[in-house]
Design brief:
CATH topology: Porin
Mean pLDDT: 83
Shape: elongated
Number of strands: 8
Structural class: alpha+beta
Order of helices and strands: HEEEEHHEEEHE
Largest sheet: 8 strands, antiparallel, barrel
Distance between the termini: 71 Å
Number of helices: 4
Length: about 220
């Protein structure tokens, strides 16, 4: 088989898999275009995976709380587990904004297929702070700004369940902002975190706190 034939076959299989993934992703309830995301106003995301960084990958854990799947907060922790790396560990926290879900859902714009809708709605902007431990120094010796983008791939046809998350961006230390030279990845670096996470929803009734229940 020639190189051109192999490339054509690879492209054909790739788009074939995408097509099958979309066709088999109809919602279990065809009337619920939110796919269960309005079953509760607060969602909790618990994930674990790996963060790809300049020197070496670091295992990581990820925790997120979201309000109506739109505005949320996140906390991430990366640990080298004894492997030589710089920084040795990183903790980050901040806020995320995912504007597409409510805009799409309230306007009735849909792919009529669960997974593509959930995928598009998951695009988010992230802004926060990070605290790093450079090699042979204490935790928090480097700290600064973290900014990035996130997207999540649903493995089920409902919002509740297993997702693959990808969150990437850049980090700049306070000293870099003040004009200091970049001495190590603790001062400035790009990162990409890949996690396998579980999404669950809780009804805290923040939305309808003033409503009166009808018996």
């Amino acid at each position: 088989m020639s190189r051109l034939d192999r490339r054509s076959l690879t492209i054909y299989l790739f788009f074939g898999c995408i097509s099958c993934w979309a066709k088999t992703s109809a919602a279990s309830d065809p009337l619920d275009s939110s796919y269960g995301r309005v079953d509760g106003d607060i969602s909790v995301v618990m994930g674990a995976g790996v963060t790809l960084a300049p020197r070496a990958p670091r295992p990581s854990i990820d925790l997120r709380f979201r309000y109506i799947e739109t505005l949320g907060v996140f906390w991430d922790y990366e640990e080298s587990l004894g492997i030589a790396n710089d920084p040795t560990r990183v903790m980050s926290l901040g806020m995320e904004l995912r504007p597409l879900f409510l805009a799409r859902w309230l306007q009735g714009y849909e792919f009529e297929s669960a997974r593509p809708d959930l995928l598009v709605d998951s695009v988010g902007f992230e802004l926060g702070a990070y605290f790093a431990q450079p090699d042979e120094r204490g935790f928090g010796a480097r700290q600064g700004l973290q900014a990035g983008l996130g997207i999540e791939v649903p493995l089920m046809t409902r919002a509740k369940g297993i997702w693959i998350g990808m969150h990437g961006g850049a980090r700049w230390s306070d000293s870099v902002f003040e004009g200091a030279d970049v001495a190590s990845p603790s001062d400035r670096s790009l990162f990409l975190s890949i996690t396998l996470s579980w999404h669950v929803y809780f009804g805290t009734h923040v939305v309808d706190v003033g409503d009166v229940r009808i018996e």
